[in-house]
Amino acid sequence: MSVPSSAEELVQLIRKSGMVDDQVLNVYIQRRELARGLPEDVREFAEDMIRDGVITNFQAEQFLLGKWRGFTIGKYKLLERVGVGGMGQVFLCEHMFMKRRVAIKVLPPAKAEQPAALGRFYREARAAGSLHHTNIVRTQDIDQDGNLHFIVMEYVDGADLLVIVKKFGPLDIRRATHYIRQAALGLDFAFRNGIIHRDVKPGNVLIDRKGRARLLDLGLARFYKDQNDQLTLKYDDKIVLGTADYVAPEQVANSHSVDIRADIYGLGATFYFILAGHPPFPMGTVSQKLLWHRTKEPTPIRQIRPEIPEGLAAIVAKMMAKDPKARFQTPAQVAAELERWIDAADVPLPAAEEMPTLSPAATSVVNSMGFEEDEVVVQPSASAAAPPPMAAPVSAMAATTNKPSAGRTSTKERTATLTPPPRKDASSPPASPFSTGAVAAPVKPPSINPFSSPSTTPSVDTPKLKPVQVGVETGFHEADPTPSPGHRARKRPDNPFSGGDATRAKAKNESQWLMIGVLIGASILGGAIAALTVGGVKAPVNSPTEKR
After folding, report:
1. Tens digit of pLDDT for each residue in 418-450?
2. Model-level pTM?
3. Fewer C-beta neighbours within 10 Å, C or N terminus of the chain?
């Protein structure tokens, strides 16, 4: 159909598309005609309908182009375009029957004709679909509608770190540390489930309105435990996978054999970006950046932002060490070390202007969702737990992130406050899964070797803990077996194989025989008393009226 030239033609397109219920559309048109009439300018009418919550921005854009088809994919209705990238577009959608709102990533038809791109698209769904973690965007399904391949994901009402920093500048230190710690928890969960991300960058970390960080886009993920995962060798053996601004030095040399330490480097470069406002190497060509990641050190972060504590700057530098052995060896170590520097209750929420602005029709859809998700708090296991909370780094963070005031400490005082706590004896077992010797580092690795067998893992003297388990992979918390006061124990279901019915039947029979015995004994006693009375012997009875 041709481009609409009047309000009537626009309404006709909307009716043909089926995107707006006829009754709702009729009531809106009638009220509009009675109030002020329909405008002559079709674009003005479209803007009015967007503002009044009848159609969305994406739908209006398509209607004004004369399109009334293509508003559905599979069983989902397209509401709003929320993202565009090299591997396709992402839409806010609604299931046509269940009215469930999701985000759908659509692979362009041209990409679907490329075996490597299509293979990575399906591997992304496989990788994300196997991970259920509070800091990873959940993937629910992958499907195909004609020549369109699409992934169904949970919709996160938020913005990625790349967009936030580009629009509003470097982040508050507390917020930056809080987000990177959450991303590290998500990376650690993926790592312990056999997945390396290989493309950690600001654009792949989403922040929602509650300040929760989520990893997304596992299109370049590597299943390091799956020997049959040869997609990189098959199609991309001669190219560098990842993003030039955040790729690890060893990933530049060989993208197939990288391990979790490459993700730690990418997370460190992301940390650098949100603190500095630009990547570690903001200038230069792609080839130069790839070379510099291997040979050149970026400008120290404290030269860009002197208010950053020295200890925190040391963590950023360690995450971005050229030698993988000099970095943190697992994301759990990163999360444990960063936890000392923040108090989650003191971290401000994202500003409203940092979050995406949807059309009223799409906003009402999102608000109706409620986002009542299961709040799974996933933390490193006891073997990877952080050192005891240190008051000094948290207080130092507050001192360096508040606005200047009369009571603000000097740089010299902050440096003294940030003296790292005394470390334990050097004989403690190494935490690196890639080496057996002690790792020279300014911080103590908080976890043991996740790759060693039980027979070779050095013993660790750990304090006895309260018997409460945190299920990292399942989110299940085993409750304290001691019932609380007033607690009533739940009746356990009978085990059909434990003989419980037979035991109850036996007890019932025994009680019946006991009653019969009591009755017989009473009868015998009564007969004896009667015999004594007949024989002239009267049993002495104390009567309440008898005089004593």
Report:
1. 434 444 443 443 455 555 444 444 444 444 444
2. 0.67
3. C
